[in-house]
C-alpha cells in the first residue's frame, strides 16, 4: 500500500511538472473536452457589496442588513480559500495547469466620471468575467458597478497568455457606462412584491432590472456547445448584450434563451452541458419548450437534476440558489467534479457512466458560486464541432 501511494505521488508530481512545461495554448470550444489549463478564483478580500441599482444585499441575521456592506468574515474567507486551494491542488495533481487571479483592495470606493460606488466585490468567480471561445479569451462587460474593475485581477494571467501563445486572441467587450439609464428605477421594490407567477411572466418577457441603453452581459450567462452558443437573458445580461455577442461571434450560431426560474443569474446552474448528447437541467421547472424540442430533435437527452441535498437556501451571506449543486466542472467527457455532499446528484450522474470526483466546496458558495463558477477554461483538447445540425423554431 505504501509503495502504491509513493508511486501515485511521484506520478502526480510528474504530471504537474509536465503541465508547467507544456507550451501555453488557449483553446476551448465546449465544457467537456479534456481539461488542460484552468483559472481558479480566490476568496481573499471579498466584500458584501455596497448597494447599487442592480444589487441588493440584505442579511439582517448575519450582520449585514440592507444598506450595509463590508469585508466578508475572516473565518469564512479562510475556509473558502482553503477549499479553493485544495481544489486547485487536486487539478494540478491531475496534470492540469492552474492559474490564479491577483486580488486587489475590494473595500475601496471606485468611480468613473459618471458615478461612484462605495465598494467592489471580489475575484472568486472568474467564470462571470471571462469567456473562452476557441483561441479567444473575452472579458465581459459586467453589469454591476461594484464589478466594473474586476478585470484588473486577471490581467497578469491574460498578459502571460498573450505573451506565451502567439495565436491567442485577447478581447474585451465595450466597457459599459452603467449610468442610471442602464437600470430600471425602483425595480427591486416592485419585483419583490410580485407573486411567483408574476415574476415568471416578467422573466419570460425579459422585463427585468436592466434596460437596453447599452450592451451588458456576464460571461457566465453563455453556455458553449461548439458551434452553438446559448446566451441567457437575466438580471445581468440584456438583449443588447446578446446582440453584441451574436455580432462578435459571426461564425457561431448564437441563441438567446430565457429562464424558467424567478431569479435568473447565470446559465451554468440551470442548463449544464455534460458531454455530446447529454445536458443536465435544473429540476425546479422544465426549460422553455422550444429549447427542449430543439435539443431533442438533435438527439440530445435532457436530464432533470435531482433536488439538491446540501445547498440550503440561503446559507450565511450567500446570494446563490440551491441549484448551485449543479454547478459542476467537467475534467473530460467521463469525469465530473461535484460538491462532496451532493451524493444524490453524484449517484444520478454515475448512472450515466460518469466518474465522480467529490470536492469539498460548500464554504465557497457565499463568495459567488460553485465549482464551475470558480473556474474558467483556458485549454481543453479538441476542436470546433457542430452538435446541432438540425434547426427548430427560432433556433
TrEMBL record:
It comes from Streptomyces albipurpureus. It comes from the Bacteria. Gene3D superfamilies: L-arginine/glycine Amidinotransferase, Chain A. The lineage of its organism: Bacteria, Bacillati, Actinomycetota, Actinomycetes, Kitasatosporales. This is Serine/threonine protein kinase. Keywords: Kinase, Serine/threonine-protein kinase, Transferase. InterPro entries: AmidinoTrfase (IPR033195). Belongs to the amidinotransferase family. PANTHER family: GLYCINE AMIDINOTRANSFERASE, MITOCHONDRIAL (PTHR10488:SF1). One of its GO terms (molecular function) is protein serine/threonine kinase activity.
Amino acid at each position: 500500500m505504501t509503495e502504491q501511494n509513493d508511486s501515485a505521488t511521484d506520478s502526480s508530481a510528474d504530471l504537474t511538472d509536465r503541465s508547467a512545461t507544456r507550451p501555453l495554448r488557449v483553446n476551448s470550444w465546449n465544457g467537456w473536452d479534456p481539461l488542460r489549463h484552468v483559472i481558479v478564483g480566490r476568496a481573499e478580500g471579498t466584500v458584501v457589496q455596497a448597494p447599487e441599482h442592480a444589487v441588493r444585499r440584505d442579511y439582517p441575521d448575519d450582520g449585514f442588513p440592507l444598506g450595509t456592506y463590508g469585508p466578508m468574515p475572516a473565518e469564512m474567507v479562510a475556509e473558502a480559500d482553503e477549499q479553493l486551494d485544495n481544489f486547485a491542488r487536486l487539478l494540478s495533481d491531475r496534470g492540469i495547469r492552474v492559474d490564479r487571479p491577483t486580488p486587489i483592495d475590494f473595500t475601496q470606493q471606485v468611480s468613473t466620471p459618471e458615478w461612484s460606488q462605495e465598494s467592489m466585490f471580489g475575484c472568486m468567480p472568474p467564470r462571470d468575467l471571462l469567456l473562452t471561445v476557441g483561441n479567444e479569451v473575452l472579458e465581459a462587460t459586467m453589469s454591476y458597478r461594484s464589478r466594473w474593475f474586476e478585470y484588473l485581477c486577471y490581467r497578469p494571467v491574460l498578459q502571460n497568455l498573450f505573451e506565451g501563445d502567439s495565436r491567442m486572441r485577447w478581447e474585451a467587450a465595450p466597457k459599459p457606462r452603467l449610468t442610471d439609464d442602464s437600470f430600471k428605477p425602483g425595480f427591486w421594490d416592485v419585483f419583490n412584491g410580485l407573486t411567483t407567477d408574476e415574476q415568471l411572466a416578467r422573466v419570460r418577457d425579459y422585463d427585468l432590472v436592466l434596460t437596453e441603453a447599452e450592451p451588458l452581459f456576464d460571461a457566465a450567462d453563455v453556455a458553449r456547445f461548439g458551434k452553438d452558443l446559448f446566451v441567457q437573458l437575466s438580471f445581468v445580461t440584456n438583449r443588447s448584450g446578446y446582440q453584441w455577442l451574436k455580432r462578435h461571434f459571426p461564425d457561431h450560431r448564437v441563441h438567446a434563451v430565457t429562464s424558467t426560474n424567478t431569479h435568473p443569474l447565470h446559465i451554468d446552474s440551470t442548463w449544464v452541458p455534460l458531454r455530446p448528447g447529454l445536458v443536465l437541467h435544473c429540476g425546479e421547472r422544465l426549460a422553455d419548450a422550444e429549447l427542449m424540442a430543439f435539443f431533442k430533435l438533435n438527439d440530445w437527452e435532457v436530464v432533470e437534476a435531482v433536488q439538491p441535498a446540501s445547498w440550503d437556501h440561503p446559507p450565511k451571506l450567500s446570494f446563490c440558489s440551491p441549484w448551485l449543486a449543479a454547478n459542476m466542472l467537467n475534467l473530460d467527457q467521463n469525469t465530473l467534479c461535484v460538491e462532496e455532499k451532493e451524493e444524490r446528484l453524484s449517484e444520478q450522474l454515475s448512472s450515466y457512466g460518469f466518474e465522480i470526483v467529490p470536492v469539498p466546496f460548500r464554504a465557497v458558495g457565499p463568495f459567488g458560486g460553485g465549482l464551475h463558477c470558480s473556474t474558467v477554461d483556458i485549454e481543453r483538447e479538441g476542436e470546433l464541432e457542430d452538435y446541432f445540425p438540425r434547426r427548430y423554431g427560432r433556433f
